[in-house]
Amino acid sequence: MSLSESEQTATYASGTDDLRADQLGLAFIRAKNDAPVEWWYYNGHLQSGSDRYSFHTAFFRFNATGFSIGRVLPLRLLGTEIGFGHVSLTDYQQRRTHFSHRRVFGWQVDSGPNDVDLKLKDMSLVVEQDRHRLAANAADCTLNLEMVPSKPIARYGPDGLFGHLLPRRSHHVSYSRMSVSGSIEIEGATRNVDGTAWLDREYGEIGPDPTVAGWIWMSIQLDNDCELMIYHIHRRDQPSTCARAAIIFPDGKVRLIDEQHIQLRTLREFRSELSQAVYPVASQVTVTDPVDGVRWELTVDADFDSCEFDTRGTTSTFYWEGGASVTGSIGGVVVAGKAFMELVGFARQTRLGQFEHARKNLPLISCLANEIRLRVSDCTNQIHDHR
């Protein structure tokens, strides 16, 4: 796979050149109710004095058309739209991750011409011009954060249209660096925090094809004000992988990188006691800029290994999601930074080759069990310790 010269540096699509940066961002971030699938995803690194934390939140909306329970009961009878929400907060001092997920049938998303207003049970997101206000609960924790983009929105292809290395097409954009301020509450104790965040926004025909087993995704924020995003997709029962990356420069320009210029090598693994999945939690990342030949050689290593989440009852998979530290060099110049990793499809119970069929044909017994889980509390909570 190779990228044309016009694809290597994303430019504003026709009809958007006259929009201010905040208007352009809202044009992509507003709800797209005609899209089969869409999501809003944030991750971030926080500090309160010398204490460190990380978080991730995700709002998912699926159109229920084509979904069924027990292969016979159309899921749209419960609502034409399904909403899922995931929240995690990792406390590095206590070596503990707090996670919760929830589901809503018939979830309606609100977006006016100048704002975004999402409410999903105990999660909410309000975007007005350049301010993103997030409130969410994760087990016995609460996040109240305000995020402001430090760069223009990054688009991965013309008009954000990104093939994901899969047959289906989606619009994919990011705010690759956002300043964060606000507070978190852990077990009744409130802490003021600040830090940096990343927003990923996708909508369209999103979903794996039957050959895809899973992926490694990384969002990397370096101290030199550059960012790097990487997708590394592995296929079921095949040694081959596919990859794509994007460099976001300090001025906000985006350069797309194809797979021949990307290498990932696993340095360290973590085995989950819950699913027995083995996750590559530390990797050597090598990316060569095809324009100037500069080599990016980075080591990405998880800050806390026990970050696997069981989302049966919402998005029906096990996945690993957490913060990481970055060291390395660009063109021989030493750099450092922070990252987030998402590792999907490593648990045998929820390999993505079967995920699409299972998601659209929910077994009746499993559906009832998941419903009981979610009815016991308003959302399902998980806490992971590693001492």
UniProtKB/TrEMBL annotation:
Transmembrane segments: none annotated. Residues 37-205 form the AttH domain. It comes from the Bacteria. Signal peptide: none annotated. PANTHER family: BLL1000 PROTEIN, HYDROLASE. This is Hydroxyneurosporene synthase (CrtC).
